[in-house]
Amino acid sequence: MTPLLLNIGNTHVEAGLPGQTPQIFSTAEFSADKLHLLPGQPLAAACVVPRFLPELRKAGAFLVSADSAGSLLDFSAIDASTLGADRIANAAALLADEARLPAVCVDAGTAVTLEIVDARKRFRGGAILPGRALLRKALHSGTGQLPEIAFSSVLPPFPGTNTDESIRLGTDGLLIDGVRALLERVRTLFPGQTVRLTSTGGDAAFFRAHLPELEEAPGNFTMNGIFRIYESYQKQKGQGKTS
Fold first, then answer.
1. Is it true that the peptide bond before 147 is cis, omega within 30 degrees of 0?
2. CA atoms of 44 and 89, how far apart (whole Å)
3. pLDDT in tens, 70-126
4. Is 33 a catalytic residue?
5. Average pLDDT for consecutive 10-residue bins of the chain (243 residues)?
6. How far, in Å, are 55, 62, 128, 130, 131 from residue 58 at the CA level?
7. Among 33, 74, 79, 86, which one carries the catalytic annotation?
8. Tally of domains in the chain
9. Residue 238: is it exposed, middle or buried by C-beta count within 10 angstroms (0-12/13-18/19+)?
10. Residues of the domain holding 211
11. CA atoms lying within 13 Å on the CB side of residue 46
12. Comparing C-alpha atoms, which of 49, 43, 5 is closest to residue 27?
């Protein structure tokens, strides 16, 4: 039976069948009873919110991890003991276009993460940055006067002429320049090779607008990675039973 896929992030939860548009829930309001599983239907999840793990394990869910993804990806180049399930799923999703490896995924959400996979399907690591909302909240909560400003798709001219512009230049500009610098460092890992640069996540359009070298990832990118890992694991498990 086709599994129901879950991508449980810090802000949103995606739930849906492979190849279909997922439902979106607020993580703060999500619980497993919101799901409508058919009798015997498997559940495959990438979860970065620890409080959900006991409930998922109780439900018998297949959980994305370095161990469960080991038949797809080589993790020998990194310490995978604390690697987030969403990052593993993104790396697996990059394998859908094996002819264009090495590749990096920029996942722009609550955090901005980079996942790098080389031509030998090795997960090479990456980087984690706070996302735009986190940077705004940090400035607001850590100071006595700075407001928590709204998102904007454009950067104001430098220098900022008021507090709103100055915060946008400092937060959004910092992230754009930071991701740009990280992508340059990724390229140095693969001299003479073309590196595919892919972007996904709720804030990906902002980064693509300022970093045109970023491609838009196929729809349901992380969910596709979850499904690839699940399928690979089940296939390996089946082969193990017959050997």
1. no
2. 11
3. 999 999 999 999 999 999 999 999 999 999 999 999 999 999 999 999 999 999 999
4. no
5. 93 94 93 78 95 91 96 96 97 96 97 98 98 96 95 94 96 97 97 97 96 96 97 85 40
6. 5, 11, 30, 32, 32
7. 86
8. 1
9. exposed
10. 4-131+174-242
11. 30
12. 49
164 found inside a domain: no
Residue 43 within any structural domain of the chain: yes
The backbone torsions φ and ψ at residue 67, rounded to the nearest 5 degrees and listed phi first, read -65, -45
Q: Say if 160 falls within a structural domain.
A: no
Say if residues 89 and 226 touch (Cβ distance below 8 Å). yes
Q: Answer whether 102's CB lies under 8 Å from 119's CB.
A: yes
CATH number at residue 93: 3.30.420.40
| Any domain includes 163 | no
Structure tokens at 13: 């939860």
